[in-house]
Amino acid sequence: MPNRASCAVLFSSIVVFLTGAIALVVPSGYSVALLLSLAGVAALCVPGFFPKLERRDGWLIAVFLFYFAVWALEIWRDGQPASTLDKPVRILLALPALFWLLRYPPSGKAFWGGVAVGAIVVGLWAGWQKLALGLERAEGFTSTIQFGNISMLLGMLSLTGLAGWSQLQQRRWSWGVLLALGVLFGFLGSIFSGSRGGWVGVPFILLVLVRAYGKGLRPSQLWSLLGGVVALGACLYALPATGVKERVNSAFSDLELYFQEDNPVSSLGGRFELWKAGSYAVQEHPLLGMGSKGYIAYRDQLIADGKVDSSISEFTHLHNEYIDISVKRGVLGLVSLLLLYLVPLRMFMRMLGESRARRQPYAAAGAVLCVSYMDFGLSQTFLSHNSGVMVLFFMMVIIWSLIRAAEREPAAALKA
């Protein structure tokens, strides 16, 4: 009969699998991760449960708390209703989930399997919407950009597992096929959504993977990998059904409209006007920002003064995480965002230079997560959405718990 610890590990594994597998195909599917928070809160009432924390854990917790505190400060200073605490409170809920997972980490198979299955299901669903239903852009239960970028993230995490973790498994061919399908369909989900921003970070993510696994590859293999990526991009561009050529051409058309014809009424032109408004706003309150309500009032004044186009009046966010947070939370907010990305990224990247093979794939996954979000933020205020908050913070604590668990495994163990 299974003991309490093995049941707790099974529970962690099931929830972690579902966190990846149903993230985008069920309304708020990513919120299944909150079950880990509930388990952690309940377990904190049990004497002796609290895990032994290391200094590294403290750094991760500190950047979470700092980002939450700056966000909460904006809400208070701006006079926003208490309901707006819903998103930042999810950051705090990631902490009991972390404590639970450090004590009862999931299996690696649950994590990688959930990521791959989630990517495959999302890609198939997006393909059905685009090719069968004839939608211009595939969309899920969140915004189109969030849908496409998280699909891309699932595909990139599948690639990370394919390049490293699957090679350590006894059934590596079976896992290799599953993760390869995750890569393909994760990318297709992004393509069918028409989201372009996620693709900007692909070269940087590939550099992370080369850093993680490049020592074991011959130059010819690296060139083959690069050639494969280029060939895939060329094929996707050439196939009309994917919509890639149309989206690329529309980007050039938007740029021409904005810079040559001074017409901001386009996807990219609207972004440029939003960023122009942000540049004005940052100068008004550089240290602590003007808050969300303060920005909206200031934006309306800029429109009335003719400094920006009225087409941006429908947007409450500036479609750039870095500019948006600088406007609403000032330099303090920008620092909190950069620390949120760069502190974990540094910890993950330092692990890639070491020889602990069991830990390497999870460290690479953590780095891919950070780099992806840094890229997503260039063209979208990703953390202003529930999906953006839940996926980043809960995926990070899941990956961190797997790193810690891998460090405790015997070197000869095949279990991952």
Overall description:
The chain is mainly alpha-helical and 416 residues long. Helix content is 70%, strand content 0%. The protein contains 15 helices and no strands. It has helices spanning 4-21, 34-43, 55-78, 86-103, 108-132, 144-163, 172-193, 202-213, 219-238, 244-260, 267-284, 291-304, 321-352, 360-376, 386-408. Helix 14 packs antiparallel against helix 15 (386-408). The longest helix is centred in the C-terminal third of the chain and has 32 residues, at 321-352. It is globular and about 65 Å long.
Report a brief summary of the structure.
This protein is mostly helical and 416 residues long. It has helices at residues 4-21, 34-43, 55-78, 86-103, 108-132, 144-163, 172-193, 202-213, 219-238, 244-260, 267-284, 291-304, 321-352, 360-376, 386-408. Helix 3 packs antiparallel against helix 4 (86-103) and helix 13 runs antiparallel to helix 14.
Share of helix among residues? Answer: 55-70%
> What sequence of helices (H) and strands (E) makes up the elements?
HHHHHHHHHHHHHHH
Tell me the number of strands: 0
Could you tell me the mean pLDDT?
88
Features:
single chain; 416 residues; mainly alpha; 15 helices; 0% strand
Secondary structure layout plus pairing:
Blueprint: H1 4-21, H2 34-43, H3 55-78, H4 86-103, H5 108-132, H6 144-163, H7 172-193, H8 202-213, H9 219-238, H10 244-260, H11 267-284, H12 291-304, H13 321-352, H14 360-376, H15 386-408
Helix pairs in contact: 1-5, 2-4, 3-4, 3-12, 3-13, 4-15, 5-6, 5-7, 6-7, 6-14, 8-14, 10-11, 11-13, 13-14, 14-15
